Amino acid sequence: MRQLVTPRLIALFVGLFFVLAVLWAFVTGAGTVIGQGYLKEANAEQEFHKHPNKYEFGFNGPLGKWDQRQLQRGLKVYDEVCAACHSLKYVAFRDLAALGLTEGQIKAYAAKKVVPGIDPVTGETTTRPGLPTDYFPSPYPNEIAARAANNNAVPPDLSLITKARHDGTNYVASLLTGFQEQPPELLKKFPEAKTPAGLHYNPYFANLNLAMAPPLTTSGQVTFDDGSPSDVQSMAKDVAAFLTWTAEPNLVKRRQTGWAVMVFLLFATVLAYMSKQQIWSAVKPKTKD
Amino acid sequence: MADTAATADTSLAHDTAPETDGMRRRDFVNVAAVSAAGVGGLAVLYPLISQMSPSRDVLAESSTELDVSAIQPGQAIKAVFRKQPLFVRRLTPAEIAAANAVPVDSLRDPQTLAERTKEGHEDMLITMGVCTHLGCVPLGAGEGEIKGEFGGYFCPCHGSSYDTAARIRKGPAPKNLEVPDYEFTSDTKVVVG
Amino acid sequence: MSFPWAKEYQPTNGLTKFLDEKLPLPRLVYNAVGAGYPVPRNLSYFWNFGVLAGFFLVLQIVTGVILAMHYAANAQIAFASTEHIMRDVNWGWMLRYAHANGASFFFIVVYIHIFRGLFYSSYKAPREMIWLLGVVIFLLMMATAFMGYVLPWGQMSFWGAKVITGLFGAIPLVGEPIQIWLLGGFAPDNAALNRFFSLHFLLPFVIAGVVILHIWALHIPGSSNPTGIEVKSESDTVPFHPYYTAKDGFGLGVALIAYCLLVFFLPNYLGHPDNYIEANPLSTPAHIVPEWYFWPFYAILRAFTADFLIVPAKLMGVLAMFSAILMWFFLPWLDRNPVRSGHYRPLFRKFFWFGLIPAMAVLFYCGGAPAEEPYVMLSQIATAYYFLHFLVILPIVSSIEKTEPLPTSITAAVLGSDKEVVKGEAAEPVAV
Fold first, then answer.
1. pLDDT computed for residue A42 by the predictor
2. CB-CB contact of C339 with C228 (8 Å)
C-alpha cells in the first residue's frame, strides 16, 4: 500500500496550489474592499430603477385565455403608434386570423400595407400592396436608416419584445405609462445623472434614460372600434397584450396541451406506482426501503 | 410483463399462496400500467410525425394570382404554383378545333376540352406543368420549344406527348396534365389554388 | 461476470431460438436490463437516476434530430429559422421547448446521479471504470450543451460562444491562434455556427456510445447499493425485471410530471430573455451568464481574480475550471477507504453534507450572479473548499476515519437481522 501514498501526495500539492491561488485572490480582493469600502458606490440606476407593475390580463395564469378584442385593440395601437418606428418582422398578416379577423379582413388589412417588391417587368425594387402571406413591413429599409432617423438609437423589433425582457408583458405596459419628470431626490443625490438632452426619463427602463419619446400621450389617441376606453393606461395594456401574443402565439394552445399531458401523466404515474407496489410486495418489507 | 412478475413471485415465493382472485387483480394493475405507457408512447408519436407535414407558412402560400391579359392566342406562360410550374396557354381557334375533333372515348384519360377549362374562357388552358408520369416539366410552353406530335406538350424524360388540351395521347404518362383549382376573379385575373 | 444465480435466457419459440443462434440480441437485453440481471434488492430512489439520464439522452436525440429538419445553421437566418419552428412548424413550439428544457432536465438528473455516486463512493473498486466513463460522458454533455445553446443565435448564444472560446485564449503562446481556429474567424459567425451545429449533432451519438460502455462496465461488477457492501447471496438480489423496471417506470412518471410542468407552463423559466434578441456583435448584454448547469464551474472560473506566482489570473481561472472536473478522474485513487457508503462514514458524511453540498450551492448561486461583491468573495471561499474537499480532505479522511460497523449482508440490512430469507417472512413488516 505504500506506493498509493504517491497519488494522494500529488493531489495534496495540486489541491493546495489551487486553494492558495484562490485564497490569494480572496485576500487581494478583500484588501481592495477594505481600502475602498465594502459596497460599491451607489448609482442612480440601482436606486431608482423600478420593476414592472403587475397588471391583470386574461391570459395570466395556467388557465388564461386570449381576449381577442383586446388583441385587436392592441393591434390598432401598434398600427397607429408603434409601427411608425418599430418593425414586427416575425408576424405575418395571415397570423392575424388568431385575433379573430376573417380571411377577407386580413386581405383588406394586408392590402393597406406597403411591402417591398420587385417590378415584374423591369426587375427594379419597388413597393406593392401586401398579401396575407407577407410579414409586417419594417418602417426602415435597413438598420443604418433606422439608426440615422432615430438619433443613433435603433428601435427594436417588437415581435419578441415581451419574451426578450424580464416580465415582458408587464414591462411593456409599465414602460409605456412610466414616462415622467426626473424625481428631484434623484437629482439631489446624483446631480451627474441628469437625463441628457434627447433622452427621456423612465424608471422602468434599465438605465433610466430612454431614447424613445413617450409614444402614448393623450386619451383617445387611438379610437377603438368596440368603444373601449382609450386612456393611456388602457392603450398601454392592450398593446402589451398584443405584443404578448406576437411573442408567443401558441401560449394558450401550449397550456391546454399541457393540461391534457399532466392529467394523463398523473394517471399513468399512479398506475405505475400501484404496479410497482404490487410487484415489490413479494420481497419488500413495508417499513424500510 | 405480468407473466414474468408472476414467475418472479413464485421463484422468490415470500408471499402466502395467492388466491385466484388476487392474482387477477394484480395482473390487471400491471397490464393497465403497461397499457398506459403504450398509449402515452403512441400519443407522443403524433406530433413527431405531423411535424413533417407542410408548416403553416408553406400552406399559406398555396394560392397564386395571375394576370392573363397579355397572353396572345397561341402563346403560353409559365407561372409558379406551390413551387411547381404552372402552364397558362391561350389556345388558337385551330387548337380548340383540333382538341374537340378527338373522340373522347379513344383517350387514355377521357376528358373534353370544355371539362378542362372554365365556361366563357374556353381558350384559357391552365394546367400544372408536371408530367403525370414521374414529375418532369414537359416542353411546349416556352417560345420555340417542341410541342410533340399532338401539338400540345412533350415530356423529354420518357417521351409522353400531350395534345392541345394537355391530354395524354402517347407515352407512359397515365393521366392528363392536372388542372388545378382556379377561378377567374375578373376577365383578366385568375386566382389559382 | 454475473452472479451464479442469474437466470438464464430461454428462447421459447422458433423466432427467438433462431435469433438466439444468429444474433442473440434478446439474450443481451435479457441479461442487461431483464430478468437475467440480478440487482441488489435495497436500492433507494437515488438509483433511478441512471435510467432517467438514459431516457433524457434518447429524448434529446429524438427531439434534436427533428429540430434539425427545420433549423437552418446560417448566421443570416438561424434566429429566424428558430422563430419559424416556434410559429409555423406543426408542434414546433413543443419540440423546441421539449429540447431546450430537456437539456436542463438531463443535467438535473445527471447532477443527482453524480452526487449519489459521490455520497455512496460508487467510484471505488471494482467500479472505477464506470466512474471514469461517467466523467467522460459529463464532459461530452457540457460540450454538447454549450454548442447547442449557440444555435438559436440570440444574444446569449453569441456572447456565450465568444466568452467560452475566449477561455482558450488564456493558454500561453498558442491561445489566440487556437481561439481563432476554433471559431474559424475573429468572432463567432457563420463558420463557428456551422461547425457547432455539426458537432452538436455528432456528439450526442458519441455520448450514446460511451453510455453503452458505461452500462457494460456496470454489468461486470453489478450495481452498487446504499450499504456499499457487495452482494453475497441470492437473497441479496432481485432480478432487474420486473422489480427495477417497475420502479424505474414509476420514477420516470414522476420525472416526466416535473419536466412537462416546465415545458408546458414555464418553458422559458430556465432560459434567459436576452436570447430572444438576435445576436448583435456590436453590443454585449448587460449581464451575461451561461446556462444554469454551468454556473458552479463558471463561478470557479471567475473566482481567480488575481495573478498567482507566475500564473496570470485568466489562465489560473481556466486551469481551475477544467481541473474542477478533470480531478474527478482521480477520485477512485484519492479516496482509499474500503467502506463505500456515506451512511457508515461519520467524518466523510459531515464533510459531504456540511462542506461539499453548501460549497456547491454557493458556487451555483454565485455563478448565476453578477461579477460583483459579495458574490466574488463568496465564490472564492466556496472554490477553496471545493478543491480542499476533493484533493486534501477526502484523501486524509479516508486514511484516518473510523467507520461505523457494516451490516453483515444486504439482506440483513433490509430485514434488520441476519436471518436467511424464508418463505413468508419478507412480506411481514419488520421493525427498524
1. 72
2. yes
Clarify whether residues B64 and B23 are in a common domain. Answer: no
CA angle C176, C180, C185 (to 5 degrees): 150
Residue type (1 letter), B8: A
Flag residues of chain B having pLDDT under 70. Answer: 1-26, 62
Catalytic residue flag (residue C70): no
Q: Which residues are A135's β-sheet partners? A: A92
Q: Which of C7, C62, C70, C90 to mutate to test the interface with B (most CBs of B within 10 A)?
A: C90
Question: B9 lies in which domain range?
Answer: 1-53
Count of the separate structural domains present in chain B = 2
Alpha-carbon span C259 to A258, nearest angstrom: 11
Q: What is the ipTM of this complex?
A: 0.93
With beta carbons under 8 A apart, name residues in chain C contacting B55.
70, 84, 88-90, 92
A130's grid cell: 401586401
Residue B77 belongs to a domain with what CATH number? 2.102.10.10
Three-state secondary structure readout of A157-209: CCCCCCCCCCCHHHHHHHHHHCCCCCCHHHHHHCHHHCCCCCCEECCCCCCCE
pLDDT for residue A37: 62
Residues B101 and B165 both lie in one domain: yes
Average pLDDT, chain C: 92
Q: Are residues B48 and B63 in the same domain?
A: no
| CA nearest to C108, candidates C68, C147, C145, C160 | C145
pLDDT digits (tens, 9 = 90+) for A12-62: 999 999 999 999 999 988 888 777 765 556 788 888 999 999 999 999 999
- As a whole number of Å, the end-to-end CA separation of chain A is 37
- My answer on whether B92 and B176 are in the same domain is yes
A8 band by pLDDT with thresholds 50, 70 and 90: confident
A45-88+157-251 domain in CATH 1.10.760.10? yes
Same domain, B177 and B109: yes
Mean pLDDT of A243-272: 97
How many Å apart are CA C29 and CA B53, to the nearest integer? 35
Angle made by CA atoms A285, B2, B3, in degrees to the nearest 5 = 110
**pLDDT at res. C179:** 92
Domains of chain C with bracketed CATH:
42-268 (1.20.810.10), 298-417 (no CATH)
Domain extents in chain A: 45-88+157-251
Measured between beta carbons, which residues in chain B are less than 8 angstroms from residue A253? none
Pure H helices in C242-356: 245-265, 295-303, 313-326, 331-334, 346-351
Q: How far is C-alpha B184 from the chain's CA centre?
A: 23
| B140, B73: one domain | yes
How far is Cα A238 from Cα A230, in angstroms, rounded to an integer? 9
Q: What pLDDT sits at residue A38?
A: 58
Q: What is the pLDDT of residue C372?
A: 84
Low-confidence residues in chain C, pLDDT < 50? 418-432
pLDDT at C426: 41
User: Which residues of chain C neighbour B13 with C-beta distances below 8 Å?
Assistant: 423
For A31, residues 6+ apart whose C-beta sits below 8 A from its C-beta are: none
Q: A67 or C1: which carries more pLDDT confidence?
A: A67
Cα-flanking dihedrals φ and ψ of residue C191, to 5°?
Answer: -60, -45
Residue B63 and residue B130 in one domain: yes
In this structure, the answer to whether residues B172 and B118 fall within a common structural domain is yes
The verdict on a CB contact (< 8 Å) between C87 and B56 is yes
CA gap B20, B29 in Å, rounded? 15
